[in-house]
């Protein structure tokens, strides 16, 4: 293991980490090339240059992976919970042993600053430890029927082979959050990471294999034709579950495909988080929280504060402090020392961010800082603060997914709660106030699966993560995360 801090990353070390990363498909415990030999390029978003090529799965490869998962299902389900737990705990340990290499690989393929990549790797590892502990605690029940006589024996069984589809913005953690509970519950899986960031998940496949995951229990494939490869597998009925993290538009399409065979689904979809600062908030803490909620992952997070509502009496001061902090951020390659904001994932995403910013400005928003793309080979956007963002601006409804803080004043609690809820999304909202009574009242009134009360980050492997409305179905992590991969079975017992 090599110690990596931003100062020690040399071009040679970057090349070395990429050279050592697995680049084939992981199917039935084997590393294989795509049938037909297709490959897809992985691009470093901080330079726009190709990092490497990885195997590009065809429909046949998809079938191979799903059939391997089907064959391995009975054995994985029969593996004692303690053994499944041991695989997960060993995975946790191996991830930590390789944290520096995994973080560097992630920074290279996705762009986030190295310190944040390291944070994500540790966060991903934690899902394996959490579910290692949950694997041995799958419980059931025994109950006398209300009318007496018979008994209810309730047991829980794995759902079966599962298809897991993950986005590019958290290349390792979103997969860990699914594979961890799947193994804990005894479900085999086929994971498809986003084509833009396959390297982190493929590296996880290598670790899971070393940790003792039985052949076929975990299959991982990258493909440039995700719809073509995945749709027949989803519609086949061989898989019994789809767990998806990504945009609401793709999630909707996949839900339709799942309807064919009535698959169990978990859907972690898009967000449009509001960040509300009341007049009695501790402004220093609120600015710290907004920096986290907005700038974590360079703004490319489903939990990112998309709409920042600040009480009219403090918006000027809040805007001044936030602008100071945002304009101090160093933008650059995530491997470079001191960089706090990496590139957008690609040119399309950078251009979309600019389009939303220009749209808000044309509707009357004022620029406090930023509001421009940066020149050069990478896909950089300058950290931006806009104020007086009007209700008509597209960014009030659409995910910005970039380093843009959009401030709007409000006058009353009633008005702001209505504004927070005027979106089809419902993933997370943030509330800053020193009044516990108001904090809880607002937390209960806003329509979202999660609320950060005086805190700018809510994700934790030990807590249930997920949204309501069009932000999704189901919860990942926490004590209930494993339930997504378990069926409840009733055995009714006659006693007379
Ligand atoms: P996306 O375009 O929906 O893609 C997500 C995944 O779905 C990728 O692996 C993608 O593969 C795949 N995909 C796309 N079309 C597909 C199809 N027809 N059939 C099967 N798979 C398909 O989302 P993204 O741009 O990668 O990620 C950003 C979105 O994810 C944002 O909306 C964000 O809010 C959301 N997100 C939500 C959470 C949460 O927990 N709620 C967490 C993180 C991100 P390819 O790209 O390779 O085609």
UniProtKB/TrEMBL annotation:
Q: Which residues form the Aldehyde dehydrogenase domain?
A: 31-490
Coiled coil, from the record: none
**Pfam families xref list:** Aldedh
Source organism's superkingdom?
Bacteria
Claim: 4Fe-4S is one of the keywords in the record: no
- Give the residue range of the signal peptide: none
Q: Which InterPro entries match?
A: Ald_DH/histidinol_DH, Ald_DH_C, Ald_DH_CS_GLU, Ald_DH_N, Aldehyde_DH_dom, Aldehyde_DH_Superfamily
Q: Where is the active site?
A: 268
**Gene3D superfamilies named in the record:** Aldehyde Dehydrogenase, Chain A, domain 1 (3.40.605.10), Aldehyde Dehydrogenase, Chain A, domain 2 (3.40.309.10)
Look up keyword NADP and say if it applies: no
Q: Which SUPFAM superfamilies match?
A: ALDH-like
UniProt KW keywords: Oxidoreductase
Q: Which family is it part of? A: Belongs to the aldehyde dehydrogenase family.
What this protein is called in its record is NAD-dependent succinate-semialdehyde dehydrogenase
Q: Which species?
A: Nesterenkonia aethiopica
């Amino acid at each position: 293991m090599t110690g990596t801090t931003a100062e020690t990353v040399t071009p040679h070390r970057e090349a070395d980490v990429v050279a050592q990363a697995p680049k084939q498909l992981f199917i039935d415990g084997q590393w294989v090339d795509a049938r037909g030999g297709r490959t897809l390029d992985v691009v470093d978003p901080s330079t726009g240059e190709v990092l490497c090529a990885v195997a590009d799965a065809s429909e046949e490869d998809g079938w191979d992976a799903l059939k391997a998962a089907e064959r391995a299902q009975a054995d994985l389900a029969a593996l004692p919970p303690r053994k499944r737990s041991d695989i997960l705990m060993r995975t946790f340990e191996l991830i930590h042993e390789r944290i520096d290499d995994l973080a560097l690989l992630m920074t290279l393929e996705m762009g986030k600053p190295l310190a944040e990549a390291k944070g994500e790797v540790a966060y991903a590892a934690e899902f394996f430890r959490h579910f290692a502990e949950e694997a041995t605690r799958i419980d059931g029940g025994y109950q006398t029927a209300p009318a007496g006589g018979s008994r209810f024996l309730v047991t829980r069984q794995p759902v079966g082979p599962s298809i897991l589809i993950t986005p590019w913005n958290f290349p390792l953690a979103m997969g860990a959050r699914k594979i961890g509970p799947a193994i804990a519950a005894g479900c085999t899986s086929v994971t498809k990471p986003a084509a833009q960031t396959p390297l982190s998940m493929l590296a996880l496949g290598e670790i899971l294999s070393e940790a003792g995951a039985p052949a076929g229990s975990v299959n991982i494939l990258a493909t440039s034709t995700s719809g073509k490869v995945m749709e027949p597998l989803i519609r086949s009925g061989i898989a019994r579950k789809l767990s998806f993290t990504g945009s609401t538009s793709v999630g909707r399409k996949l839900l339709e495909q799942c309807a064919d065979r009535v698959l169990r689904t978990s859907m972690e979809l898009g967000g449009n988080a509001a960040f509300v600062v009341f007049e009695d908030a501790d402004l220093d803490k609120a600015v710290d929280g907004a920096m986290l909620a907005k700038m974590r992952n360079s703004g490319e997070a489903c939990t990112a504060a998309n709409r920042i509502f600040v009480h009219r009496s403090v918006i000027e001061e809040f805007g001044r402090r936030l602008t100071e902090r945002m304009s101090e951020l160093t933008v650059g390659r995530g491997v470079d020392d001191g960089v706090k904001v990496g590139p957008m994932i690609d040119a399309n995403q950078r251009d979309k961010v600019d389009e939303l910013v220009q749209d808000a400005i044309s509707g009357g928003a004022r620029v406090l800082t930023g509001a421009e793309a940066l020149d050069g080979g990478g896909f950089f956007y300058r950290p931006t603060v806009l104020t007086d963002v009007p209700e008509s601006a597209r960014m009030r409804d659409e995910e910005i997914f970039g380093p843009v803080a959009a401030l709007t004043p409000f006058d009353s609690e009633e008005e702001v709660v209505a504004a927070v809820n005027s979106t089809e999304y419902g993933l997370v909202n943030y509330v800053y106030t020193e009044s516990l009574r108001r904090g809880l009242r607002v937390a209960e009134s806003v329509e979202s699966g999660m609320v950060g009360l005086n805190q700018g980050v809510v994700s934790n492997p030990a807590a249930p993560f997920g949204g309501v409305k069009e932000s999704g179905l189901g919860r990942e992590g926490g004590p209930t995360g494993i339930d997504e991969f378990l069926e409840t079975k009733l055995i009714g017992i006659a006693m007379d």
